[in-house]
Amino acid sequence: MPFVFAPPAQAVVPVQDERYQFLPVNRVFGVAKNYAEPGREPDAPPFYFMKPASSVLPVADGDVAKIPMPPSTNDMRHEIELVACLGKGGRNMTREEAQAAVWGWCTGIDFTLGDQKLASGANDITRAKSFERSAPVTHVRPAYRSPMPEPADLWLYVNNQKRQAGSTENLVKDPYDVIVELSQFWELQPGDMIFTGTPFGAGKVNKGDRLEGGVNGVGTIKVEIV
Q1: Which of 109, 122, 141, 175 is spaced 20 to 30 Å from 48 by Cα?
Q2: Tens digit of each residue's pLDDT (9 = 90 or more) over 100-139
Q3: What distance in Å separates the CA atoms of residue 1 and residue 3, rounded to the nearest whole number?
């Protein structure tokens, strides 16, 4: 098949502890407002957005990824998340099918440009979410080697100061409910990655900040803002 120019390389995430195994990335979905703060009613229902596959940056255990601060922002924010990686897809999936579709899990940081959301006078989620390297993730841990769906703690430190702490038991919609709902609007595919939401405490980062976050039983990720 002749191409006008060479197609881009397939985005992939290595499988944890497997030297020659990779998960090909198809699409990246995210869900916002998906954590309930104990004792408070949610201020809005969860809603969905997408990032390009090219925004995914795999980070090996022990490595520190360099994330450039986009020149268009003064308000880049961190959001630590549990990420579901699909090995099967479907449309109008049942909860049982959603559980069977998850090939593995990883820890991710969904970086968001807070000042770009309203830059155009509207909620411009594309500019806020879809910039380069906005989705660093750990290597994928196969589902059979993770504690999911048991509740897992999430945490994130910036310069050794705790910014975020939460548990997946406080999700408004758990990962399988998210997959079921997404499949009502898209035919999900193997390689789709789903950022399942972030607990309270997401905040601003600056150049030179060092971040370390994790999901217990899944993985730990380290990045530096440059």
Answers
A1: 141
A2: 999 999 999 999 998 876 554 446 788 889 999 999 999 9
A3: 6
Q: CB under 8 Å to 128, separation ≥6 — which residues?
A: 112, 113, 114, 116, 117
Token readout for 48 is 């969905």
| Backbone torsion region of residue 61, taken as left when φ is above 0, otherwise alpha when ψ lies between -120 and 50, otherwise beta | beta
Answer yes or no: are the C-beta atoms of 128 and 112 closer than 8 Å.
yes
Does residue 149 have a cis bond before it (omega within 30 degrees)? yes
Angle 131-132-138 (CA atoms, 0-180°, nearest 5)? 115
- Closest C-alpha to 215, from 158, 164, 160: 164
pLDDT at 199: 96
- DSSP-H helix ranges across the chain: 95-101, 125-129, 175-182
Q: Measuring CA to CA, which residue among 64, 148, 71, 144 is closest to residue 109?
A: 64
DSSP state of 73: -
CA distance 89 to 97: 9
**Phi first, then psi: what are they for 161, rounded to 5°?**
-110, 130
Which parts of 69-192 fold into alpha helices (H)?
95-101, 125-129, 175-182
Structure tokens at 176: 């399988």
Three-state DSSP class for 96? helix
Q: What are phi and psi of 128, to 5 degrees?
A: -75, -30
